[in-house]
Amino acid sequence: MSTAELAPTGTAAPGPLAHDLVTRLAALVTAAPGRPRQASHAPFDGALIGEVPTCTAEDVAEAQRRARAAQVEWAARPLAERRAVMLRYHDLVLERQDQILDITQVETGKNRVSAFEELADVAMTARYYANTAASHLRPTRRQGALPVLTRTVEHHHPKGLIGVISPWNYPLTLAVSDAIPALLAGNGIVLKPDAQTPFTALIAVELLFEAGLPRDLFQVVTGAGRVLGAPLIEGVEYLMFTGSTATGRIVAEQCARRLIGFSAELGGKNPMIVLADADLDKAVEGAIRACFSNSGQLCISVERMYVEDAIYDRFVPAFAERVEAMELGAGLGWDADMGSLVSSDQLDVVTRHVDDAVAKGARVLAGGQPRPDLGPLFYEPTVLEGVTDEMALARDETFGPVVAVARVADAEEAVRRANDTDYGLNASIWTTAKRGAELATRIQAGTVNVNEGYAAAWASHDAPMGGMKDSGVGRRHGREGILKYTESQTVAVQRGMPIGPIPGQPLEKYASLMTTGLKLLKRAPFLK
Ligand code: NAD
Q1: Domain of residue 140, residue span
Q2: Which residue, judged by its Cα, is nearest atom 27 of ligand 1?
Q3: pLDDT tens figures, 491-515
Q4: Is 397 helix (H, G, I), strand (E, B) or coil?
Q5: Residues with C-beta less than 6 Å from any ligand 1 atom
Q6: What tens digit of pLDDT does each residue of 25-63 get?
Q7: What's the whole-number average pLDDT of the chain?
Q8: Quick one: 191 and 84 in the same domain?
Q9: How many Cβ atoms from other residues are within 10 Å of residue 105's Cβ?
Q10: Is position 265 annotated as part of the catalytic site?
Q11: pTM above 0.90, yes or no
């Protein structure tokens, strides 16, 4: 493993964020004066970043009151105006990227290119929904009850207020990218970002205001999820939750009691399959990205790898060697292949999973150690072989830079073992394009990438993204990703003949005429 003595310029642990920036962002939080403050610290070196208010249930209620009032005016605006805000936002996010990337890195400890992926995702989401909202939302003519006589139109109305609860791992894009379609559909937002990463969420929201979003329409409350979650859910019409499966179950119960809809994007234990006909060099590089982007703290990153016997002894050593050569580093330069973990909790899980596996007989092919010489929360990218079911990391999400490789006889065994999990978020298959596309439909995962790790499916914003099994409920992206924030309404206008007996007509006669009519309608080629 390289000790990552990266060039000192731009790669030393960064200094603190400017005081006036931190103060300005903290002021965007909706909180009564005098609330206790909670500090956040930089994973790279433990330095204090800044403080945000510890909001209460009263603050959440006030945020909901303000956003609700602003939403009425926002929903009345033409869609073209809402769209213009998002197109300006797209440009602002790209123009201000240096500052946004600095804040994201300081707060998460991720390397710069992982921060950039988030930023690009925000811009792509803004562009996609700005350009498609009109077609998703426009009133649509539907087949009426009676041909010609019933004119039926489906409408989509904003739900009103949307709650967004987001995690720390992609704190930029997960704070705003699910909100963008909700806003375009005419809703207001109350966001609760993770307590570890409030400033990244706040810079993303500040830029929305600069792009022209009404100030009260997007409210941010900061504090512990277990305190603010319930009041947030109590006062919204829909919840967009991203986080762990355990918390997903809690918020799902709360939403169910209120009979409101929700989307839950949860955890994963994502498999990669490498078959003998894969391009080996591309598969090695793809596996690096798939396993170690954002230090493996990516819901769709790969933690299990099934490699076909015929290629195993060439692929696995080449992969392990490439992993050993990865450069780790703290700092705001572009040089590091991987950054830090985000918190001591994450470091504990990763260390516990690797130590448990090794104690039970797994072999370390690369990495396997924490790296306090680089920063308090660094852990080496790690490849393990010989992982068995009694080891915690075989089935539990590690959410760190650790992958277990296993030899399989053929594609059939690979598919079977890939599906042998409670999760079903993402999967990756390396083989020929045609074979990969066929095998993909047999994988129980919401997204399957062929000859890519995760980015091909994730960044296909026109297509739905989300989890099967314990990995989630609902989808983001595409048509589903915006229509879920709307109430659909069917308006049917009946002309001429009523749908019922004509006054004075004997009921039996009416039923007989209807029967004949239904038989004729079945033969009509233009009817569904
Ligand atoms: P977490 O569930 O602990 O926290 C996520 C958010 O929920 C945070 O904002 C937190 O404050 C809040 N929260 C915590 N307890 C709550 C409660 N009782 N009520 C309401 N909100 C509460 O998850 P985490 O550890 O921060 O995030 C990592 C997890 O998120 C991993 O499992 C990862 O796979 C998952 N994730 C999934 C996706 C996806 O798209 N499927 C994306 C990113 C992360």
Answers
A1: 68-266+479-486
A2: 243
A3: 999 999 899 999 999 999 999 999 9
A4: coil
A5: 165-170, 174, 192, 194-195, 225-226, 229, 242-244, 247, 250-251, 265-268, 299, 397, 399, 425, 467, 472
A6: 999 999 999 999 999 999 999 999 999 999 999 999 999
A7: 96
A8: yes
A9: 27
A10: yes
A11: yes
